Task: structure prediction
Amino acid sequence: MSAPFSTLYLDPLLWDLTLDAAGNIALATPAYSITQDVASACRVFLGEVYYDTSQGVPYLGANPPTNEAGALLGTTPPLNILQGSLAAAALTVPWVATASCVISSFVNRVARGQVQFSTDDGQTLRVAI
Result:
């Protein structure tokens, strides 16, 4: 993969930093780093990134923390809005060329599915949601 970066590796179960075999903070390299960055982008609440409050998914509404119309949490949003919000978040990650979200089930306000995306070099990857 041609992406010239790595990112801090986050333990998939705890979503926290971990150490490598040498005791250093572990790094993730492409393609896993891009996949992890897409997962992180889909977890960010709109306005949560203090250096760029335009980033994130409107889980709490269009103008957090007021929970205005458009909120995804605590509601049953139209699936196309949820899918579009997650795909748009994935597209903010460098080297992501295309993205779509597939919801396989939506029961009791719990969505399950995946964000499928392709990288600039044509690799197709996915993140479970």
